[in-house]
Specification:
- The chain is built from 13 helices and 13 strands.
- By secondary structure, it is α/β, with parallel strands linked by helices.
- Strands 1, 2, 3, 4, 5, 6, 7, 8, 9, 10, 11, 12 and 13 form a 13-stranded mixed beta sheet that branches.
- Helix 3 packs across helix 13.
- The protein is globular.
Length: 449
Amino acid sequence: MTSIADVSVRIQTSSDSVPSTPCWFGEVALLIPYLHKQGILSAINSQVRLARRRFGRYEVIDFLAVLFGYAISGERTLEAFYEQLLPFAQPFMALFDRENLPSRSALSRDLSSLTPTATEALRTLFLADLLARPLDTERHTGQLVDRAGNEHVVFDIDGTRQAARQRALPKTEELPPAQRRLTQVCAPGYTGRKRGEVVRTRTVVSQAHSYQWLGSFGNSGNGHYREELRRGLTAIRGYVEAHHLSPISALLRLDGQYGTGAVIADLAGFLFVMRGKDYSVLDRPEVQSRLHLPADQQFSRSESSLVRQLYDCPDVAVGPEGVRCRVVVATHPVAQKKSRVGHTRKGIVYELFFTHLPQDAFTASAVVALYLHRGAYAPLLADEDQEQDPDRWCSHAPAGQEAWQIVSQWVWNLRLELGHMLEPTPMRTTEFAPPPQRGHSRAGVCTGL
């Protein structure tokens, strides 16, 4: 038996560490020069200012460089990101035309020192960068066409939250009050399905056709949803103006958190559809009289056996403010399992949908289908969580955490933009509902459009 082994082969080893380049470093080397080319980094360096004692040799751009790299890397924690980055700190910072990588402690101190003014300046640059470069040269935005031939651009507004666990600490007269690190950014509130004792909620705004983010506005606890909504509306107005669209072409989809008359007043000038939560509307005489008549339509979806009866009430006063809007009431019998949405009366589950959409352009079934299409928004949030997880804790200060989430959305939009440049595809136009046919009866069974 002969051996094919080459006895001249020698294996030598060394104790010197030779780390391999992180898998995400190539994307950093691609995105950051693109930001340089667009003048974004120089704009950040000149417009995002921070006055702080003992700032040392660092500038704001040094710390934002770390956040950009962290968002691109997808590393679970800053500690893991720094472990991968430290052997390549010099070439990484050279991409930003800087020399020194801030330490983790210096990054923490800087983010804690960020002021709301500096964060708002960063947010302004983020939105300006989004509006300055459309996805294609013809500034297509994607659109939804209704039965009357009107074109709409759909925006989704919703809240997302991140819970934080807190250890139980002893409380005795001899011990000082407990100091929690997340006291400034979190507060007790609704945690949903997430485990934790405190929570931070943020309102996010996205363009439903291109999946671009327009903004993120966070607060501790359950947040200040009406204040955050107004700021989101400002971003949407800027988007509409930048693309030379009619203000009435913007169509907003909101969840049941916003379904009150006060919020409807805040939405003046916008078309919208939302789930209502003010069930006192059911006691209105005009609504009760309509419920005693046959339903306008039936609505069902292919993936569910549930059939809803739809009652269209064109002009109803909502809330103590008496704000008038169109109300679509959907009813169905109580199932064996308790319904997670709606209000139950005498064995019937009632759901409310508030809208300003005209009846000739959107039937009752089209209104309900348009709202239920918000289900496509959940995968977008899930993709964001999987790819970037912007709800990771980067700072114990509100302004620092907001800055991190702005940078995270910025990286998301850059990836969409460069991906579209690599493989340009036309923005899709959706004919949400075909024009009505002559002689077609008003009542009928409508499946999900």
